[in-house]
Amino acid sequence: MEPVVEMRFQTNEVSIKNNFLPEGNFTVNPKFTRKVGFVDRETAFTELLLEIINTEENPFPVDIRVSITGFFKNNSLPPEQEDDFLKINAVHILFPYLRSIVSTITTASMFPPIILPIIDVKTLFPDDQEKK
Predict the structure, then answer these.
(1) Most buried in the list 14, 37, 44, 103, measured by CB within 10 Å?
(2) Cα separations (Å) of 132 from 61, 84, 108?
(3) Rounded to whole angstroms, how far apart are CA atoms 111 and 106?
(4) Domain-by-domain residue ranges, the chain?
(5) pLDDT of 10-54, one tens digit each?
């Protein structure tokens, strides 16, 4: 029995801004935000937002924002499993696309490519584990 019968993705935002910093060694400090919810009774969504922003504490040569949303039409997933699916499984599905967008826009903008590491969603959003 397949819990998700239809998936669709959309890109909400892709932006990169040059901060014109002098050359140096920089540390990528990505911030991830996730929103989950329902469009209607059958269609749920997970939005994943990545921000890499230049700050005084962590200077970075570019500001990057990438937001993508996955829409999941469900006919058979039990209601008690919907939250875990949207917060964990859907992020696992979306993350490779987000990684690809980040490396593509940095390379296409003539910056050294930023290749995000593969992540464990459970460590990316530790608050989820505390609530269980």
Answers:
(1) 44
(2) 39, 11, 42
(3) 5
(4) 4-124
(5) 999 999 999 999 988 999 999 999 999 999 988 999 999 999 999
